[in-house]
Amino acid sequence: MLKTIVAIIIVIMIIGLIRWFNQPKTMSETPEQEFGLGTIEGSLSYPSEFIPFDMEVCAQNVSTRELYCTSEHIKNSKYTYGVGYKIEVPAGDYYVYASTQMVPGYKAYYSESVTCSQGSGCFSHDPIRVKVSSGKTVSGVDPQDWYK
To answer: Is 46 contained in some domain?
Structure first.
């Protein structure tokens, strides 16, 4: 009798586990959707007649401080000066900057100065927070503030 009861309990537990594993997952239960990837892209520039071959662009997560970097330069006429970049990052908020060993330790951010065409009335060099959503591309993030 006891063996029969234990066997029934085990069968019920197995059926419950099978149903639980086979039920559809909601968005909050699926990590790849909740923490999906998005893309940041923009144009490269440098205060010279060329863009340094070692220029790297990094996106730093505002909350975690995690860095996502690329040194791949994409040649395409859609970018200012014909050269751009793309970085795939987890959804979140980022500060984006470019750097090169030609100016060691300097970070040229995508800043308020960049968005107002770096004119004489542009006094703020504060980085702009870039919000990236899962499955989306944020374009026009140009880390070009070399004049801070």
So the answer is: yes
